[in-house]
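WARN  no MSA supplied for this record, continuing single-sequence
INFO  ligand: zinc ion
INFO  echoing inputs
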Amino acid sequence: MSRTRNVGLETKNPENVCKDKNCPFHGQLKVRGKQFTGRIVSDKMQKSVIVEWVGLKYIPKYERYKKVRTKLKAHNPTCINAKEGDLVRIGECRPLSKTKNFVIMNVVGKLEKYALEKEAKEAGKKREKVKEEQKTLTKTEEKE
Ligand SMILES: [Zn+2]
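INFO  complex generated
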């Protein structure tokens, strides 16, 4: 499939061309149903990513809103090839696997803060590890 299909959604067509049959632009995949925008938290799978976004849910008893994180798996066509930290728009499609019912339609932008956040998280993990090691050390010393 070398021709780019008009998907009928208000998205720009990708610059690259791919041979992925599950691509909404160059394959046979139809996009219908719900659409969301979120950031990619993992791109470790082949042609799949995990997209996450934060929404608000109203709790009537406390008359306040609660933050709700939603994580979904989405197909990552080779022509789009979105990376971790990208802000992407995803659309619902037919089930592509047991838990994958969405496909990336376009990359909206990049989250510059994301890299910093990840670094900070990893630094925190290291610190926790050091603390745990110290704890175990003190415990063993106490035993002796
Ligand atoms: Zn494509």
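The CA atoms of residues 131 and 137 lie 10 Å apart.
INFO  checksum written, moving to next record
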